[in-house]
Amino acid sequence: YDAISRDAPGLGVLVRTDFSNEHAWETFCARLREGEAEFAAEGPAQNDGTGEALPAEDAEMDDGDEGSDEEEEDGPFHIFSVVNASPPDRALFVDASNLAVLRLLNDVDVRRAPVPPPETKRIRPPNRLVDHDGWQEVYTGRTVWIYDAKSNADQCAKLVSRKAACTALRRHADSWRARVSHVCELQVNLASGAMQIDFGGLDRWDYDERLRNLEDAVRPIL
Question: How far is the C-alpha of 44 from the C-alpha of 54, rounded, in Å?
Answer without folding.
Answer: 10
